[in-house]
Design a protein that fits this description.
Radius of gyration: 25 Å
Strand content: 15-25%
CATH architecture of the largest domain: 4-Layer Sandwich
Number of strands: 26
Bound molecules: fructose -6-phosphate
Strand order of the largest sheet: 3-2-4-1-10-9-11-14
Number of domains: 3
Distance between the termini: 11 Å
CATH topology of the largest domain: Glutamine Phosphoribosylpyrophosphate, subunit 1, domain 1
Oligomer: single chain
Amino acid sequence: MCGIVGYVGNRECAPILVDGLRRLEYRGYDSAGLAVHDGQRIHVVRAVGKLRMLEEALVGSPLLGTTGIGHTRWATHGRVSETNAHPHVAGEIAVIHNGIIENHLPLRARLVKAGAKIVSDTDTEIIAHLVDAQCRQGHSLEAAVRLALKEVEGAYAIAVIRQSEPQKVVVAKNASPLVLGLGEGESFCGSDIPAVLPYTRRVIIMEDGQMAVLTSDGIRVTTLDGTPVEPAVKTIDWSPAMAEKSGFKHFMLKEIHEQPRAIEDTLRGRLDRENGDIVPEEIGLSPELATSIERVVLLACGTSHHAAMVGRYYIESLARLPTVVELASEFRNREAVIGPNDLVIAISQSGETLDTLMAAKIAKQRGAKLLALVNVMGSAIARAADAELYTRAGPEIGVASTKCFTAQIAGLLMLAIYLGKRRGTLGKERAEALVEGLAHLPQQMRDVLTGTRQLVLSLARRYMDARDVLFLGRGTSYPIALEGALKLKEISYIHAEGYAAGEMKHGPIALIDPNVPVVVLVPRDEHRDKSMSNLQEAKARGGRILAVATEGDEEARSLSDELVEIPAALSELLPFLLVIPLQLFAYYVADLKGTDVDQPRNLAKTVTVE
Ligand code: F6R
């Protein structure tokens, strides 16, 4: 986790670095810091807590200079303190780092024995001392970084500056993400594309085992052993405004409202409405592969795992392929049986989640075909895969994932239609109805947003003091219940559980009493009647029932304490509509409670640790 930024050029760099950190703060917010070279010396300012604490510190101690690096931390090694905040300094060197140095303990022991004064508990400070030691042997900064990294094992994206080489930032990468930005007379680096997006759209996505020297004249990339590399320069089509709040109070609220647009973009050019099909070139799977695979394995964590669970319903029902859903973080703890006849789909917003990346790599090593369903272009999972299918949700900044969830299930539904058509398991009429349904989905999502917002806000006011909330659903509504519970707990800190509605009677029903709101998802689909029975069971035990049902369902209205209505839709499309009021509910409860909605405690958006 952690976010890093760097700048070299002709402008004052501190505001640019702080701006970049603001866009990266979702990666961690335990502390933040800058190191800026003023032409003579390197000056460092660090502060514990959110970025605004660093900004306040900078008011008292402004940093002037046109070369600098900045960091926002999610603590791994060493508690949250100013001493452990980055940048770390040793002699002439200042370093920032995202990742984990695995052999830091033996390196630390060796450096201490040699007389190094190590002041923090971090693995990063070791890098600063190693580079400084090489510089003191007479090496340039670039050579010193190269030599120091030979001793280091683990994951890193680092940026380093040196007192006696004022107009230069040296960066290197292994396993942690790093993007370089090419400007006019200036160069940038950052952990993610949005960090550099306001300044340039021309980027280099660095590969593992590469390093680069950034100056105001440009960027020179080499491998870690010094071989020159001609990097591919990509032009990013995300606009800088996509990474702004655009008048919304929080990124999360903006991103909830962006979902119709995110779905439109994810579908764009991929639907063949004339033939009720998906455009083959757009899906990342050849027709041969679609017909030869014998099983689908979906790998993901967190919200992406809930999307995978929805995807399983789609693939099993439309393509009639055995499908398993794996928590990537657990997949690696088993001797999973996987082989060349499996299609593995790694699902990830960031494309950097370490558990998902490692699980995907294991599956690939065992011969499976690997498709990445990711949002961030050129991310590690995309690069590891045989093919990519991008969700085009745009940058997601709120730590709680919303628009990427619905974009992921749109991707999975398209895949299932494509597989079903190729495998002859999906009839013409159903395929046409699904493709038409997808084409109209963004408008239906807009209708749900405008139609439920006020009501959900008033429900949030009424239930914001609940201690526990249950969410129940059946079929595709079950993963939506899980997602509703996850959203509520991660941003409002209310204990919430999602259950398969049919499981209630096997235990969780004991939890129900008049103080426990029970959100029951009963849209009109093939499971509605059974779910209505579960709703009544919960009601009979005194639970307060908040139902989400299809418009005009009078029975649901009469049996529930509160009712949120969504439009009628094909059952495959209901998850897109059901999840919106649950996202809004979690958002409004959290906002009313005054929690930090976009950066909830203890979390980071991109989880690059195991
Ligand atoms: C929850 C949330 C997380 C992520 C999970 C996987 O709102 O955002 O549970 O879904 O950390 O992240 P990605 O999708 O980037 O692999």
